Amino acid sequence: MDAIVTKIQNYTRGRERAVLKLEEDLGILTEQEQDLRKRIEGLKHVPLPAAEYFASLVDRGERRSALRDYALFTFGVLVSAGVTIILKKFGLA
Questions:
Q1: How far does Cα 47 stand from its chain's mean position?
Q2: What are phi and psi of 44, to 5 degrees?
Q3: What distance in Å separates the CA atoms of residue 31 and residue 8, rounded to the nearest whole number?
Q4: Residue span of the structural domain in which 88 resides
Q5: Which one of 32, 38, 40, 45 counts the least CB within 10 Å of its CB?
Q6: Total number of domains in the chain
Q7: What is the C-alpha separation between 62 and 69, in angstroms, rounded?
Q8: Cα 29–35–38 angle (5° rounding)?
Q9: Are 35 and 66 in a shared domain?
Q10: What is the DSSP string of 56-85?
């Protein structure tokens, strides 16, 4: 009988811990939801032309970033090939 009561108590403690963890997670998620709702409300008041202008700035920056990445990659390939050729010419590779 004592073993059964002990098992029930252990099970109950486990359930209590699970409930406390869920309540803690719910509190965190509620705070995050409130923060996101405030951000959404703030964005609702942003005029559409301003949002479109910001999106165009971001898009231009991404294009520049992509071109820079391609240029750096090409430059890296060329430098790597040049170093390989020089090393082979001097018998170091």
A1: 28
A2: -65, -25
A3: 35
A4: 47-93
A5: 45
A6: 2
A7: 10
A8: 140
A9: no
A10: HHHHHHHHHHHHHHHHHHHHHHHHHHHHHH
Provide the residue count of the chain. Answer: 93
Q: Looking at residue 59, what is its pLDDT?
A: 72
**Residue pointed to by tokens 């750096």:** 72
Is 45 strand, coil or helix? Answer: coil
Mind listing the pLDDT tens digit for each residue in 6-57? 998 998 999 999 999 999 999 999 999 999 998 888 877 767 777 777 777 7
| Position 57, amino acid | L
Tokens read off for 20: 């406390």
pLDDT digits (tens, 9 = 90+) for 45-80: 767 777 777 777 777 666 667 778 888 899 999 999
* Structure token pair of residue 43: 């964005």
Contacts (Cβ under 8 Å, ≥6 apart) of 57: none
